[in-house]
Design brief:
The protein is of the alpha/beta class and 272 residues long. It has one domain (3-271): Alpha/Beta hydrolase fold, catalytic domain (Rossmann fold, 3-Layer(aba) Sandwich), CATH 3.40.50. Helix content is 42%, strand content 18%. It has eleven helices and eight strands. Strand 3 (21-26), helix 1 (40-44) and strand 4 (48-54) form a beta-alpha-beta unit. The chain starts with a strand and ends with a helix.
């Protein structure tokens, strides 16, 4: 696995598969590059070059005490693209990775990216405010983070079935659910808790307004982790050139439960 140094000398890991037009994948909160195991083969077989980043505190990257704020995580994405001199790329982000993608574009510009795909992305804003009435009450966000800090393993286990919306008939084996929980627990606890707070406190509405390239939003209507109401339903209205595709029976783990549909939707969008 190759590594590079980010702007603050943090060592970050990344993976590259295939050749051809580049697709850069940003994993969701607490997850690492392995989450894309249902996407990478599909796109490599279709002639794309897949580039995957383990963010700081996740996967095989360094686990520093700081740098989990929006600016530094966006700078890490920029450092990867500069390290590999990636241009004319498709940028795909899931959950918190979607927030990183949006903030990267607002902070560093769109010169290296031609299209953006947001998968159940935590944008633009989770928390309620008078000008964002679809948001989640701050007390509920604070209670969730407190429960995460008190017993992270239980917090993950309690949400595992809902993550995949198995109550709607999605066929996900217990082994696969256990695997995904283990992947989440592999993140540095400090990184997971600090980044969760950053996601809960963010307001990326100004960032979305600056994005002019084509954007595809994919989101499950049964997503319990990042509800579609305060996020994609709002984001698609703020973006200048965007399309939202809703998956009625999908939860937050749609990259697994709806992998075939998700891959096909992304392929159609990026080949246009």
């Amino acid at each position: 696995m190759p590594y590079f140094q980010s702007t603050d000398d943090t060592t970050l890991a990344y993976e590259v598969y295939g050749s051809g037009a580049p697709i850069v994948f940003l994993a969701g909160w607490s997850l690492n590059t392995d989450m894309w195991e249902h996407q990478v083969p599909y796109f490599v077989e279709r002639g794309y070059r897949c580039i995957l980043l383990d963010r700081r505190g996740h996967g095989r990257s360094d686990r520093p005490a700081d740098g989990y704020d929006n600016d530094t995580r966006a700078d890490d994405v920029a450092a990867l693209l500069e390290h590999l001199d990636i241009r004319d790329a498709v940028l795909i982000g899931h959950s918190g990775g979607g927030a990183e993608a949006v903030h990267y574009l607002a902070r560093h510009g769109q010169d290296r990216i031609r299209r953006l795909v947001l998968v159940a992305a935590a944008v633009p804003k989770l928390s309620w405010s008078p000008d964002h009435p679809a948001g989640i009450p701050q007390a509920a966000i604070d209670a969730s983070i407190a429960a995460l800090c008190a017993d992270r393993a239980k917090w993950m286990a309690d949400r595992a079935q809902g993550y995949f919306a198995t109550h709607l008939g999605n066929d996900v084996s217990p082994a696969l659910i256990d695997q995904e929980v283990r992947r989440c627990l592999s993140a540095a606890p400090w990184a997971a808790k600090t980044m969760q707070r950053a996601i809960g406190d963010s307001d990326l509405r100004p960032d979305l307004a600056e994005i002019t390239l084509p954007v595809l939003l994919l989101h499950g209507l049964a997503d319990q982790s990042i509800p579609i109401g305060p996020t994609s339903h709002v984001a698609v209205q703020l973006l200048k050139d965007a399309e939202l595709k809703e998956y009625p029976a999908a939860g937050h783990g749609l990259y697994v439960t709806h992998a075939a549909q998700l891959n096909a939707d992304i392929a159609e969008f990026i080949s246009a």
